[in-house]
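Consider the tokenized backbone below.
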């Protein structure tokens, strides 16, 4: 009786609480294992609708866009949506002073106006299948890790060779999952004539800039529109005027019904990299050493960049993209380390490891957390030196430039173009100040055992980073555009002797000789330990569903629309509107200066409640940008583009209270296409579910 009452109470509570699915990025091919749960959370389609190799399924409407984003097909004529920040470099490449599509937006008004993008591809997943046995064929347990690696490579290459067919655009790859306990073959069809159809002005597509990046409330219209072209047989082809719009096996129908708190959401895309099953040692290193140190170093760089950007409009333009790149991870790491600390993830993992070890005694999994602990103790100081090197010396632009020019000369490639690209966006006072700050930081924070001999000698000779800077920037030929442009392979001796190249190279050789071999050896051992530990964790918790860490392969993440509470007494509602854009609008602030046309449209009235973005609990990561956000009926309701910074530890540990993905509401895309782009012709090919 009592038991019945408790059960009934539980099921009542479940009925009235927003349902929680949240954590997990699942392999579509195994979706049959999740479909009951998805349906219990409101999904109304079947496993076959999500992924099938026998019939068209939703997977056939999802692509890997370029090499690091996701996109979705939205018409029978190959129309494609992704993010503005995913199409950014294409939009930029088509921009000039006369046609500044980044600034003003771009709208093809017919197919003939769509712009080709050499080098851009979209990859459709044809199928995935497990190939573990074939990959490990010939493996015997006496093999060491290096032998296993080469066996896996040989077998994997053979499998790929059997199915790949470059002449038909078929690419294949074998990917390790669960720390190489399993291998899957992924077969893609790659289309390479992908044209730009539309993009809003950056003041819409990048509205809020880095100020709002990783933040809520968010009002970024982060979309761009492309179209896939094929030859007359619908097969991949190089760009040609004779190509025709690609006819997809499946495309998304669009829902205009809108989202409400609690609605089921499903993100179908390609998350890049997560590490959910690492030991407490890795989490402690990331949260307490790596993230805080890299944040501090980037703060120095960002402050220097910002100081000069504020003084000069030309410098602001030169450094806006560089600054955005530095700031993106900088902000993400802040959320990550805070989130790890707030959740007590290190202590929670330590506790888990104690329980694991007690359970594992006498099994093949005995001693694994302890072994990882010992390996990390060896690896961390070396790895820290490597990360410090990357975030200091390698960020000095002149040094990197010297190395790039040297490589080009070595290979007999012309350097004039490299020089032009570099100097267009180079402001030497910024670089000089960063040089001093980075050398100083490296000197102060690395102990003597981790400083290259050359660095110690030179710094002692100059007496200070400032004196070293004065000499280096005065003497280096790389500060002189004319001299660099004129360099030929005959000048290699002068290039090699140049103080900028010498400093770069001294560090690089030190890395190659002192750090890299140690890191590689320990990483191999750590990987091996994780492979056992992963299996051990699965054996330890036989009832838990383990999703594989992200590796840029296609995944399903499901959850629901939800707000969150970032701090005491604050609650964030999950939907933002045009009213919020008007509240932020400020011609004085670059990130918040909206185009006049949006002000005019707003002034007409009636647009206050126009939705812009929404939050949900889907487990996403970098690479999920541009992913379709799908409702319970499989219709497109949004385009994923970001997460909230308080939840960016989701790459290591997922917290349903804080982890939210941010999506563009598809109705804002439709609004901007119609009101700002006047590209109504695109609506004719879209299919609306409601
Ligand atoms: N934070 C998003 C992601 O990681 C968007 C980055 C692009 N936007 C920017 N303002 N930097 O990639
Ligand atoms: N903004 C990321 C991307 O570009 C998505 C994320 O990290 O949530 O893929």
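A designed sequence for it:
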């Amino acid at each position: 009786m009592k038991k019945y009452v408790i059960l009934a109470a539980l099921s009542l509570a479940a009925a009235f609480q927003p349902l929680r699915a949240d954590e997990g990025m699942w392999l579509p091919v195994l979706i049959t294992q999740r479909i009951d749960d998805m349906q219990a959370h409101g999904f109304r389609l079947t496993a076959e609708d999500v992924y099938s190799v026998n019939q068209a399924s939703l997977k056939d409407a999802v692509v890997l866009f370029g090499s690091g984003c996701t996109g979705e097909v939205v018409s029978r004529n190959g129309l494609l949506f992704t993010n503005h920040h995913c199409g950014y470099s294409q939009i930029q490449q088509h921009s000039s002073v006369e046609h500044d599509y980044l600034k003003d937006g771009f709208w093809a008004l017919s197919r003939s106006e769509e712009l080709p993008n050499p080098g851009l591809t979209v990859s459709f997943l044809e199928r995935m299948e497990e190939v573990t046995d074939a990959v490990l064929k010939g493996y015997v347990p006496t093999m060491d890790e290096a032998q296993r690696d080469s066996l896996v490579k040989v077998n994997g290459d053979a499998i790929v060779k059997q199915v790949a067919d470059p002449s038909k655009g078929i690419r294949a790859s074998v990917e390790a999952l669960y720390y190489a306990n399993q291998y899957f073959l992924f077969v893609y069809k790659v289309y390479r004539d992908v044209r730009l159809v539309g993009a809003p002005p950056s003041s819409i597509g990048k509205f809020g800039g880095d100020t709002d990046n990783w933040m809520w409330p968010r009002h970024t219209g982060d979309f761009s529109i492309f179209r896939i072209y094929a030859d007359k047989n619908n097969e991949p082809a190089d760009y040609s005027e004779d190509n025709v719009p690609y006819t997809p096996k499946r495309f998304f129908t669009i829902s205009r019904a809108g989202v409400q708190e609690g609605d089921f959401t499903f993100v179908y895309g390609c998350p890049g990299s997560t590490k959910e099953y690492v030991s407490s040692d890795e989490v402690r290193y990331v949260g307490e050493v790596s993230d805080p140190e890299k944040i501090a170093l980037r703060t120095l760089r960002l402050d220097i960049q910002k100081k000069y950007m504020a003084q000069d409009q030309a410098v602001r333009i030169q450094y806006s993209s560089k600054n955005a790149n530095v700031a993106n991870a900088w902000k993400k790491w802040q959320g990550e380390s805070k989130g790890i600390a707030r959740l007590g993830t290190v202590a929670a993992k330590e506790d888990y490891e104690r329980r694991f070890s007690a359970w594992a005694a006498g099994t093949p999994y005995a001693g694994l957390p302890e072994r990882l602990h010992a390996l990390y103790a060896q690896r961390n100081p070396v790895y820290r030196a490597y990360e410090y090197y990357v975030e200091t010396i390698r960020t000095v632009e002149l040094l990197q430039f010297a190395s790039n020019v040297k490589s080009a000369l070595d290979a007999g490639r012309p350097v004039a173009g490299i020089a032009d690209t570099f100097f267009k966006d180079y402001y030497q006072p910024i670089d000089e100040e960063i040089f001093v700050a980075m050398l100083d930081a490296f000197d102060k924070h690395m102990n003597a055992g981790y400083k290259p001999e050359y660095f110690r000698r030179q710094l002692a000779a100059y007496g200070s980073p400032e004196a070293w800077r004065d000499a280096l920037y005065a003497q280096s030929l790389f500060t002189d555009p004319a001299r660099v442009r004129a360099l030929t392979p005959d000048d290699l001796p002068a290039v090699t002797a140049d103080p900028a190249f010498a400093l770069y190279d001294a560090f690089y050789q030190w890395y190659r000789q002192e750090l890299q071999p140690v890191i590689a050896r320990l990483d191999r051992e750590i990987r091996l330990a994780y492979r056992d530990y992963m299996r051990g964790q699965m054996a330890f918790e036989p009832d838990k569903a383990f999703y594989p860490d992200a590796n840029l392969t296609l995944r399903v993440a499901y959850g629901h629309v939800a707000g969150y509470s970032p701090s005491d007494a604050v609650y964030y509602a999950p939907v933002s509107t045009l009213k919020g854009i008007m509240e932020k609008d400020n011609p004085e602030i670059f990130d918040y200066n909206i185009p006049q046309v949006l002000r005019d449209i707003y002034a007409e009235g009636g647009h206050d409640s126009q939705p812009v973005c929404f939050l949900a609990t889907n487990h996403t990561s970098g690479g999920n940008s541009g992913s379709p956000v799908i409702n319970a009926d499989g219709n497109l309701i949004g385009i994923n583009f970001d997460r909230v910074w308080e939840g960016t530890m989701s790459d290591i540990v997922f917290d349903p209270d804080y982890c939210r993905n941010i999506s563009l509401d598809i109705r804002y895309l439709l609004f901007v296409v119609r009101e700002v782009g006047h590209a109504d012709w695109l609506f004719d090919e879209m299919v609306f579910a409601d």
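DSSP finds 24 helices and 20 strands in the chain.
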